TrEMBL record:
Domain named Phosphoribosyltransferase: residues: 39-160
EC number: 2.4.2.22
GO cellular component: cytoplasm
Keywords, alphabetical: Cytoplasm, Glycosyltransferase, Purine salvage, Transferase
UniProt binding sites for 5-phospho-alpha-D-ribose 1-diphosphate: A129, N130, G131, C132, A133
One record GO biological process: xanthine metabolic process
Gene name linked to the record: xpt
InterPro entries in the record: PRTase-like, PRTase_dom, Pur/Pyrimidine_PRTase, Xanthine_PRibTrfase
Reactions performed catalytically: XMP + diphosphate = xanthine + 5-phospho-alpha-D-ribose 1-diphosphate
Database matches in Pfam families: Pribosyltran (PF00156)
Pathway: Purine metabolism; XMP biosynthesis via salvage pathway; XMP from xanthine: step 1/1
Name of this protein: Xanthine phosphoribosyltransferase
Assembly mode: Homodimer.
Binding site for xanthine: L20, N27, K157
Naturally occurring in which organism (per UniProt): Clostridium cavendishii DSM 21758
């Protein structure tokens, strides 16, 4: 997605640990006009697929998924929660994740009532690095016996192993921008 690549080049900052900071349009401040284009592009990538629900993970996935859902006939969005709370139902699907940016392990949980057997699910997230977050959502999808139509990612760091992990699980991965490498402080796309 050319406009996304241009935005990354203009506004993205490379941080230690191969982290790309895109706080000005994706992870802190959200550029809604631009994210509408992201939503439309996900619709193009998964056009013709029957999608009943979008599944994502808090926090940054939520806004992207909510905007994208509008292009899939306003399907509901379900997001995995990262912290336990009294509000969360006792009946949950859960899977472990090792956080790429925080380096900590946590569990992602989804209330069982929000994923129904046989539903067609699109998984959406902001970044794909080692594939841990998306893999956890796929594990939850498996527990819920839903069909995963694909995984849609805004920015994939192609030099990390995430795509391989997901494709080995038999899932279609569509990334709107794939970073080949960070080279001498610059961002190189596939
Ligand atoms: P993975 O689980 O694939 O290793 O990492 C994906 C998750 O870690 C995403 O949900 C995202 O929140 C975070 N993440 C991974 N790499 C980056 C990065 O370079 N920049 C930002 N902002 N988040 C990242």
């Amino acid at each position: 997605m050319q406009v996304l690549k241009e935005k990354i080049l203009k506004e993205g900052k490379i941080r230690d640990g191969n982290i790309l900071k895109v706080d000005c349009f994706l992870n802190h401040q959200m550029d809604i006009k631009f994210l509408n284009e992201v939503g439309k592009e996900f619709k193009n990538r998964f056009n013709g697929e029957k999608i009943d629900k979008i599944l994502t993970i808090e926090a940054s996935g939520i806004g992207i998924a909510a905007i994208t859902a509008q292009y899939f006939d306003y399907v509901n969005v379900v997001f995995g929660k990262k912290t336990e709370s009294l509000n969360l139902d006792k009946e949950v699907f859960e899977a472990p994740v090792i956080s790429y940016t925080k380096g900590k392990e946590y569990k992602v949980r989804v209330g069982k009532q929000f994923l129904n057997e046989g539903e067609n699910i699109l998984i959406i997230d902001d970044f794909l690095a080692n594939g841990c977050a998306a893999k956890a959502l796929l594990e939850i999808a498996k527990q819920a016996k839903v069909n995963v139509v694909g995984v849609g990612i805004v920015i994939e760091k192609g030099f990390q192993g995430g795509r391989k992990v997901l494709e080995e699980m038999g899932v279609k991965v569509e990334s709107l921008a794939i970073i080949k490498e960070f080279k001498e402080g610059t961002i190189v796309f596939n």
